[in-house]
Design goal:
A three-stranded antiparallel sheet has the order 1-2-3, with no helix packed on it. The protein contains 15 helices and three strands. It is mainly alpha-helical. It has two domains: 3-101, Tyrosine recombinase, N-terminal domain (DNA polymerase, domain 1, Orthogonal Bundle), CATH 1.10.150.130; 119-275, Intergrase catalytic core (hpI Integrase, Chain A).
Length: 314
């Protein structure tokens, strides 16, 4: 097949995106990154027409429109998707388009105010599910596990029945950033998980080996299911809590917002640090590679974290 014919064959959007997705998969990109990149490229293709040779006016108009309509972090992620795609296409000799000529550089996102639940609010949230029902008990175990371990929503849905060990640890395989973690849990948490596993096997047998599942015994489709669970109980438990109106507004406008699960994650990290937990341990529990990432989850300043980190190294 000649080179022009090859390019015409792969010019179909579906073929291109499939090949690019396989490239991302082999490169070890997470399922979330691949999903975001492909969704961005589908929107981009609808606007510019020819993925391999986007017209100047349509591509510039789309980029300007996205810059105005989405947040800085989302815009940066979309530009990263386009940049990665055209670098791949150029490497594969499918396109001569140079992303540097039209894709803007990433801009620094303004630091968001960290909202950390106090221990009373966390207690109210954990007490919200009805423990007399199967689903209520499941939700309580999920909420307690997220608070105690700082697991991400996407990591919760990937846990399997064999992820929990009798030595009071939970194994998290290939989390965000492709980092495996072994997380400690309390004796009470282990008891709750053991009780849930017995209930799950007795009432929701199914064929799936996932730890948490739907009322039909099916795996959760994605971390969004955990977001919905946490959001629902947070609204019930803290519906009148002062200072959280903006969070509730986001949850209403964007039902799959990660605000509430990350509030629990931030609460776990901040409460541990306040109790004198080793900073390195907090960083490892969260699965972060850098202090700057950890700082976004804590109600503390990055400079303070650096000072504490320096003390630990003495």
């Amino acid at each position: 097949m000649t080179e022009p014919a090859l390019k015409r064959t792969y010019g179909r959007v579906g073929d291109l995106l499939y090949r690019f997705d396989q490239y991302l998969l082999v490169g070890g990109r997470s399922a979330t990154t691949r999903r975001v990149y492909l969704a961005t490229l589908r929107r981009w293709a609808a606007a510019v027409g020819d993925l391999l040779a986007p017209s100047g006016s349509s591509r510039d108009d789309w980029i300007r429109a996205r810059r105005r309509s989405v947040g800085v972090a989302t815009f940066n992620a979309e530009m990263s998707a386009l940049r990665a795609f055209y670098r791949w296409a150029h490497f594969m000799d499918l396109s001569e388009t140079d992303p540097a000529t039209f894709i803007p550089h990433s801009t620094r996102a303004p630091r968001r105010l960290v909202r950390v639940l106090n221990e009373y609010q966390v207690g109210a949230l954990l007490s919200a599910p009805d423990l007399q029902t199967l689903i209520g008990f499941r939700d309580h175990v999920i909420l307690r596990l997220v608070y105690e371990t700082g697991l991400r929503a996407s990591e919760v849905v990937r846990l399997e029945l064999g992820s929990v060990s009798d030595d009071r640890t939970v194994r998290v395989d290939a989390g965000k950033g492709r980092v495996d973690r072994i997380l400690p849990i309390s004796e009470q948490m282990l008891g709750l998980l053991d009780s849930w596993v017995m209930l799950r096997r007795a009432t929701l047998p199914g064929k799936s080996a996932v730890l948490f599942c739907t009322h039909r015994g099916k795996p959760f489709r994605s971390g969004r299911s955990v977001w919905e669970i946490v959001n629902r109980y947070a609204r019930e438990a803290m519906g009148l809590a002062r200072g959280y109106e903006s969070v509730r507004r986001v949850a209403r406008q964007k039902p799959w917002s990660g605000q509430y699960p990350h509030l629990l994650r931030a609460a776990m990290a901040t409460h541990l640090l306040e109790r004198g937990c080793d900073l390195r341990a907090v960083q490892e529990l969260l699965g972060h590679a850098s202090l700057s990432t950890t700082a976004r989850y804590l109600a503390v300043d990055i400079q303070m974290l650096k000072r504490e980190h320096a003390k630990l190294g003495r």
